[in-house]
Design goal:
Blueprint lengths: L2 H34 L25 H8 L31 H15 L18 H24 L3 H11 L3 H8 L2 H18 L10 H11 L11 H18 L2 H6 L31
Length: about 290
Amino acid sequence: MNRDDRELEQDQNAAALSRRDWLLNFGSAVILSGFAGMPGKSQHTEHTLNPALPPGLYTPSIDHVMHALNQDGPFFSIPPGAETQFVSPRSGPFLPQAFSSEEFTVTRRLVELILGEGLATAPAQQAAGAPATPYDEVAEWIDLVAFSGPGIRAAARNLTPEQRALAVAYFTSEEPVHQLETFEPERICKEGLAWLQQEAASRSFTGFLDVPPATQSELLTFISDIRPDPDIHNAGTRLFAFLKAEAIRGYYTSRRGLKELNYAGNAFYGQSPGCGSHSTPDGDTNSARDR
């Protein structure tokens, strides 16, 4: 084998290794990229590939994972050089980014109706600067999802053909990628909340929050999965489908929701804890809520 052949083989091996590493990093970081809602900035480390990963993808850091796992409270001190967007306590009232104050209050009430009002009576020790109730926490998550919609679409549409092909291969389908490119949660919320306002006005109420609780539940049933006519599709049904999905996602990925599920992740074990049911300290067996 002459010198040129050896150099060509080395280049081919390096390209194959880079593609493998790129795939592995894409798989490891895709959740982080989607969860943040906006493309992040990748920092160069000793593991950074050349060329660098696309914006929003970066090599996971074991040091940062251990830092998060060793914290018990809802807020973490941000380690130096962290690329992860840590949640920080706020010093004042929550200011929605996607909704007006009235729209956010209505969204919060809808979350309460969807998740069930019993969560308000469950004991919970709140940290300073944290949402007051699970409903507030989930409503804030929904506000973030709606606010992040344009940024996510822009990032998805700006992928190079190679990056998009890799994303399709990762998800094993075109549909999830197309969803990222076209999904408009902010429009669904705006149109759905306007529909609720019109329905409230047709019943001689100023707004949805002025409707009696029993009538609020009736309105929600009218656009829910158990609506009398399942063939009806309008701005209200689209709003309910979105809020239901994000309310469940927001609650069961929160600290309280994971505890209710007796989630066994985010910890190191000497042996696998298994996947059977587990008992809580008081002896009850936890299971997911049937919604």
